């Protein structure tokens, strides 16, 4: 397969984990933000997580520098635009960007301006490239559930105007879903779609809870459903899509190696898997690299890829007009 020309869809990509290192330096200089270095090599090293991370927590430490400089309308718009630009250049036709608005208030921005800045970056990129984007509002699992309600109220103004879904992300602990039943129920009532990070670090039961208690339609990662039969069966039987991010899963020790990743076994057993980067900069990857890894380690066929692509079309949170167009690319 010609990876460059292959049409691609990405459903799991964090904005703050996909910032160009040069942009970190540019914005820091422009907005007079103190950063550890202005050397591109040193900044790049600070932003990329090693493959030998000790845990998910160590991986998440790489987000502190991007978050520090993503506190203005300019920085949020520029970084969003550049992410879609990078994706379009590798023939990604549609992507869902997720970010946590509550992490971008340190410079005085309110939630409305934060969301509008990111949507503005998406719109500008759509005007220049053959790519469509939508936005998922994420919330760290460490925040107070009550803090989510305000963002949901403000974000609903943009539903079906670029904002499509909500997500819970960050460090995983057993039983977290029980704390977020009320805000996720309200999100669903308002019309947000729901995807939840779960089953990333050995707790398959969290996937079960995310579907049953929170109404998740997709699961971020979910690689550990194989240690919880109820979760595995529910994902398979209900057609819940798994947003697989192979390189990231190795870095966070969710799996030992790419070769041991359960992605292809899930696929062969009829589970809907999709391929994603998670964080393009932090994981030093892109969609072409993730597909290349699948080709190399699992020898996936054109039919396999076509099925994974169609999974992404089927399970994305775009409208039917965009879905029809995406189906025509392959």
Automatic annotation (TrEMBL):
What is its EC class?
A: hydrolase
Q: Which HAMAP family match?
A: A_deaminase
Asked whether the UniProt record includes Zinc among its keywords, one would answer yes
* Keyword annotations from UniProtKB, A to Z: Hydrolase, Metal-binding, Nucleotide metabolism, Zinc
Output the Gene Ontology terms for molecular function: hydrolase activity
Keyword Transmembrane helix carried by entry: no
Q: Which reaction does it catalyse?
A: 2'-deoxyadenosine + H2O + H(+) = 2'-deoxyinosine + NH4(+); adenosine + H2O + H(+) = inosine + NH4(+)
Q: Which cofactor does it need?
A: Zn(2+)
Tell me the superkingdom of the source.
Bacteria
Q: How is the cofactor bound?
A: Binds 1 zinc ion per subunit.
Active-site residues (renumbered): 200 (proton donor)
Residues the UniProt record annotates as site (Important for catalytic activity):
221
Quote the record's binding site residues for substrate.
14, 16, 170
One Pfam family, short name? A_deaminase
The family note in this entry says:
Belongs to the metallo-dependent hydrolases superfamily. Adenosine and AMP deaminases family. Adenosine deaminase subfamily.
Q: Where is the signal peptide?
A: none
Q: What is this protein called?
A: Adenosine deaminase
Q: Which InterPro entries match?
A: A_deaminase, A_deaminase_dom, Ado/ade_deaminase, Metal_Hydrolase
Question: Any idea which positions bind Zn(2+)?
Answer: 12, 14, 197, 278
What is the stated purpose of this protein? Catalyzes the hydrolytic deamination of adenosine and 2-deoxyadenosine.
Catalytic activity, EC:
3.5.4.4
Q: Which residues form the Adenosine deaminase domain?
A: 7-328
């Amino acid at each position: 397969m010609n990876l460059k020309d292959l049409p691609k869809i990405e459903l799991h990509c964090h904005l703050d984990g996909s910032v160009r290192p040069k942009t970190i330096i540019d914005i820091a200089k422009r907005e007079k933000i103190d950063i550890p270095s202005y050397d591109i090599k040193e900044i790049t090293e600070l932003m990329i997580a090693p493959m030998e991370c000790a845990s998910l927590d160590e991986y998440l430490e790489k987000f502190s520098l991007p978050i520090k400089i993503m506190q203005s309308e300019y920085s949020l718009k520029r970084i969003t635009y550049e992410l879609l630009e990078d994706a379009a250049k590798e023939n990604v036709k549609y992507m869902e960007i997720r970010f946590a608005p509550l992490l971008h208030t340190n410079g005085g921005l309110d939630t409305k301006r934060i969301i509008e800045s990111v949507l503005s970056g998406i719109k500008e990129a759509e005007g220049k490239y053959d790519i469509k984007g939508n936005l998922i509002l994420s919330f760290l699992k460490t925040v107070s559930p009550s803090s989510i309600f305000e963002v949901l109220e403000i974000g609903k103004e943009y539903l079906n105007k670029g904002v499509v879904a909500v997500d819970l992300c960050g460090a995983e602990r057993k039983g977290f879903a029980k704390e977020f039943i009320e805000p996720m129920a309200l999100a669903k009532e308002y019309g947000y779609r729901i995807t939840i990070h779960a089953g990333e670090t050995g707790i398959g039961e969290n996937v079960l809870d995310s579907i049953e208690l929170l109404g998740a339609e997709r699961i971020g990662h979910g690689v550990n459903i194989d240690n919880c039969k109820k979760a595995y069966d529910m994902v398979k039987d209900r057609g819940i899509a798994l947003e697989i991010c192979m390189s990231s899963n190795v870095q966070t020790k969710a799996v030992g190696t790419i070769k041991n990743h359960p992605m292809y076994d899930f696929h062969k057993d009829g589970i809907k898997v999709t391929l994603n980067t998670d964080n393009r900069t932090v994981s030093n990857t892109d969609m072409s690299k993730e597909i290349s890894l699948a080709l190399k380690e699992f020898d996936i066929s054109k039919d396999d890829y076509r099925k994974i692509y169609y999974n992404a079309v089927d399970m994305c949170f775009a409208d039917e007009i965009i879905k029809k167009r995406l189906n025509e690319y392959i």
